[in-house]
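> forwarded from #structure-qc
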């Protein structure tokens, strides 16, 4: 299995495991953060992590997949910004292996940050300043002192900020207040954007798929809409990475009439439970094998992810 298909599977499985009716997750940025830790893992811990990150792919394919995408989206323009705030904090005083420090620097342009977890308030302050600065003050208060305890040795922080302008603008004059149905019995009045233009599009008996390009010409937002109303949860049961990629590949330029709501979603997740459900268990327990990071016993205390998307 290619790393692309495997990572799409990871995205779908993570979304299913998040246990939220409305969830916004950036699997790519979480994947990068986990891949950094994976680089320092061994034994059963490593196998469990690979099984959820990119089962069937090699280590080289996994690292090359992330490296290529990171290089494609490096930099910032007036039309496009993608900032991923990833950091791995380790208890100060632990002896870290030079080979691991060099590996994550080379592969992910990142590094470990020694910190004293016994000073919980100072840790939370330092982490939150870092995330706020990296995300242009859009994401604040990611970490609280509740996320830190006396056993904390390794903390993985992940936040993503994305800002992009549509290649084909929605005319503000055609934005109207309309009903948006959350369920069969509940609806909200929302600002509904409208456009009639050529977009990537495909459909089959079950779903319509729409691709909306961003100005950077590298990014697309794909929207999957079940043809049967309120059937998203049913559709999700059968969705996997191959299914997603096949539908995207089947999209062709088609003149369509598009209506989508303006929305802003901001969610914070503590992902340990979700990742355990997916099979990554040992990394969060005392028997975790991160012997390529340090000879000292290490396990991940928490994986905290926050993402903001505005359309």
């Amino acid at each position: 299995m290619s790393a692309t298909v495997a990572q799409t599977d990871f995205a779908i499985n993570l979304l299913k495991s998040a246990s939220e009716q409305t969830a916004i997750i950036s699997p790519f940025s979480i994947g990068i953060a986990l891949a950094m830790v994976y680089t320092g893992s061994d034994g059963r811990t490593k196998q469990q992590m690979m099984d959820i990150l990119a089962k069937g792919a090699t280590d080289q394919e996994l690292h090359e997949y992330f490296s290529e995408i990171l290089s494609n989206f490096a930099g910032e323009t007036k039309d496009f910004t993608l900032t991923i705030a990833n950091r791995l904090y380790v208890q100060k005083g632990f002896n870290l292996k030079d080979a691991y420090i060099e590996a994550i620097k080379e592969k992910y342009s990142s590094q470990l940050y020694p910190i004293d977890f016994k000073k919980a308030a100072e840790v939370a302050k330092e982490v939150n300043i870092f995330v706020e600065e990296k995300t242009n003050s859009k994401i604040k208060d990611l970490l609280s002192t509740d996320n830190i305890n006396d056993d904390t040795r390794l903390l993985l922080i992940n936040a993503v900020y994305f800002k992009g302008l549509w290649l084909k603008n929605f005319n503000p004059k055609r934005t109207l207040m309309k009903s948006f149905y959350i369920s069969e019995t509940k609806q909200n009045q929302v600002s509904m954007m409208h456009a009639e233009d050529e977009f990537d599009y495909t459909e089959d008996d079950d779903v319509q798929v729409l691709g909306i390009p961003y100005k950077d010409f590298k990014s697309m937002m794909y929207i999957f809409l079940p043809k049967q109303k309120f059937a998203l949860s049913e559709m999700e049961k059968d969705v996997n990475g191959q299914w997603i990629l096949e539908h995207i590949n089947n999209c062709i330029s088609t003149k369509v009439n598009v209506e989508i709501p303006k929305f802003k979603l901001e969610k914070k997740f503590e992902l340990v439970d979700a990742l355990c459900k997916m099979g990554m268990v040992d990394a969060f327990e005392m028997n975790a094998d991160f012997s390529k990071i340090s000879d000292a016993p290490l396990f991940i205390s928490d994986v905290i992810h926050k993402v903001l998307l505005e359309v």
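QC bot note: The first helix runs from residue 3 to 17. The longest strand covers residues 187-203.
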